[in-house]
Amino acid sequence: MVALTNEQYSAIIRTMMEGTDTIRPNHRVAAVLTAEANLGMRVGDILRLRMVDIVLDGGRYRLNVTEEKTGKRRTFSVPDEVYKYLRTYADTHRISDTSLLFPITVRQVQHHLKMICDILGYENISTHSFRKWYATDIYNESGHDIVLVQHLLQHSSPVVTRRYIGVSEERVEDAIAKHVRIVA
């Protein structure tokens, strides 16, 4: 499985929202993947989200979750734009604040994503590609701050995070070798 490119992300979400000749639009799956790509959470944790899980705290929205896979508690800010997106989704679909935002299974999300990727000709993309895209994009936008990404993903070490986003030891060694600047 690979991290998405910006173009793939946009094409997948747009195609899901509009549908194709053979596939009806699926706003729910598009919203699940949009949330995953913008919050960096695993798809299983996204599927357990309710609007009451996002609280206004000192002028910022915060999300407190216990990750299903690790059992670790995670508290982080939810950007206003993401909150508004989820709020609009809930209101449009008449989902109460205490109900699951996305009453769907991981398998259903994966199935629909695979159909869309097949139509678009994308290979090796899964639901987890959206979390990897989040991590890779933040890594690149933060000036390659691996510790920041490690913290966001709650990985045990920078080595795990580097492997996760595809920064090989060879690339690290190459970057170090190219950076040498000795003033004599």
Walk me through the structure.
This protein has 184 residues and is mainly α. The chain has a single domain (6-179), classed as Orthogonal Bundle (hpI Integrase, Chain A). 54% of the residues lie in helices and 9% in strands. It contains 9 helices and 3 strands. It has helices at residues 6-18, 27-39, 43-46, 80-92, 106-120, 128-141, 146-153, 158-165, 169-179; strands at residues 54-57, 60-66, 73-78. A 3-stranded antiparallel sheet has the order 1-2-3. Strand 1 (54-57) and strand 2 (60-66) form a beta hairpin. Helix 2 (27-39) runs parallel beside helix 6 (128-141). The protein starts with 5 loop residues before the first helix and ends in a 5-residue tail after the last helix. The model has no long low-confidence stretch (mean pLDDT 91).
